[in-house]
Structure formats: structure tokens, C-alpha cells
Amino acid sequence: MLASKKTAVMETAAQEPSAKISQVEQRSNASVVPQSIPLIPRYLDCGFYLFHIIILMALLLSAINLRDVPTAGDIKSIHKDGNKDGFESAETAAIACRNFLSFWPFLWACWIFLYSFLFIKSICDDNVTMFAICSVAENVFNNCTAVIFYALYVELSEITVGVDRPSKAWIFAVVVVFVFAAVEVATSIIAGGPGATEATTAVSDIFSVMSGIAVAVCTGLFVLRMGTRTIDVPTGVVILLIVYIGIQPLFSIIANPQGPVQYMMGSSAVVVALYSKVFLLGLVSWLVGTHRLAYYMLRERQVKEEESAQRKLFVAFLLRINSRGKEDEPTLGGPVCEKDTPPAGAIQ
């Protein structure tokens, strides 16, 4: 009798660790792989992302036509300045317009890949390995969109035609994106060890938040340039684009939903983000069709060329007046000497 009791106790003790291990595995899997929501079946979830992919691909095929961009001769014909420098500015503006629009197919392709991996993850949400791979891929393509938005901002802000720096900047940006992905993979492996754990999910959430913030910052820089007085985009359009920027940090909820509330918030963010992308493409098409983009590139080139010399003259003149004022202490409204008149070429 006593021996049988000891045997039963030993068997129970041997079963307890395995039971605990299985419970830990179930909890870890549940923390990484989102459970199906009763109100939204899996096939509806997959169809949701598939519908978005179809829309994005249709818009990519009907993307902006570069032939709509005016040539240097077209820009020069409406430009009053008849010298050689004026034609070079017009030619540079036309090239800058083409460079700006050439980024959009790549941006749209990154968005298609992003939604494709969301679609794959919704199908394979029970496969921990595939789920982790899709999460890393989503961050990679999301970071690529941040790089492209920053490139668009640079095209609107700086003179890039005939400059070698953009090629080096692209190489640096690609290296940063892949190093970010490698660090995410290595951190997930170190934190999670064999299999999926809560630490792995936490690492994925952290990197997803960082990716969303990067996209929000780069998109915000781009929207700031779109809101300049030269382009003159309506205020309501700028507000809508700001809303699009605000939902970018919600990408971590989209990538790793942890419950029904986060799932619904993520799905809503996906819908708003999609139609904001459609609206953004329509806005760029409008800028090209109304030739506001060409005018902006021309004026930006002229301002960049004139600004440096005029700023130096303006600042030097004011510094000279201030330094003389400290010595002579003239009264306000007093006569201005002829030697205090601004130099030729300064801003009047």
C-alpha cells in the first residue's frame, strides 16, 4: 500500500513539470499569435487585406504619367527672364519634377508588399515562425516608406539635380533599414530563445512602434513642404494629411493585435491609412495637372540661388548698423546717412 502511494506521488511529481511547461507554451503562443475574433471570421480578415492589395495595385498601374510634366521649354516660355540662367533654372525645375514623381511607384510598391505581408499573416496566424517573419518584413517595408518620404522631402527642399550626394544617401538609408531589421531579428532570438515567448512579442512591439514613429516623422516633413505658400494646398487637405501622420504610430497595433479592442483599432487604422494614401496620390496628380509642382520647383531653384548672396548682404548691413548704433546711439526716427543705405542687390 505504502509503495503504491509513493509511486503515485512520484508519477504526479513527474507530470507536474511537463504540465507547467505546456501551460507556459500555450501562454507564449497566445501572446504572440492573436486569437481569432468571433465577430470577424478569418476569411473576412483575409479578404479585408486582399481588397486593399487590389486597390493599391490598380492605383499603381494607373500611376502618375511622367509625360504630364512640362518640359524646360514649356517652363521657359512662360518665364520672363530671357537669359541663359533662366533656361537652366527651368530645365532644372523640369528634371526635379521628374525626379520627384519617379519615387512614387517605389512608394506604392512598398505599400503593396506591406499589405501583402499583413494578408499572409492573417492566413498563417497559427504558425509562430511565419508570424514572426511577417512581422519583421512589415517593419522593413514600413521603414522603406519612411526613407522614400524623406527622399520626397529632400526633393522639395534641396537642389538635387547635378549633385552626387543623393546616391550616397540612398546607400546609407538602405544600410540603416537592413541593420534595423537585423537588430530586430537578433534581439527577438536573444530575448525569446527557442520558440516564441512574451519577450519576443515585446521586442516586436518595440520595433513596430519605432518604425511607426520613423514613418510619422518623415511623412510630417513631407507634409510641411506640401503646405508651403508657393504650392498653396488647401488647409483641409493639410489637416487630413496630419491625421494620416497621427495614425502611423498605431502600426504596432496593426502588426501585433493583443485583443478585440486593439484588433478593431488596427483594422480601422488600416482603412483610414489606405484611403489617405489614395487621397495623397490624388493630391500629387492634382499638383502635376495644375502645374503647381513645376512652378514650385522653379521658384525653389530661384530662391536657393538668390538667397545666399542676399542673406549675406542683408545680415552684413544690419550688423554694421547695429555696431554703429552702439557707438553713436542715434535717436529713433532720426535721419539716415547716405552711407547707411543698403548695398546694391540687398532686399529692399
UniProtKB/TrEMBL annotation:
Protein known as: Transmembrane protein
Region (Disordered): 326-348
Keyword Cell wall biogenesis/degradation appears in the UniProt entry: no
Membrane spanning residue stretches: 48-66, 100-120, 169-191, 206-224, 236-255, 267-289
Sorted UniProt keywords: Membrane, Transmembrane, Transmembrane helix
Superkingdom field: Bacteria
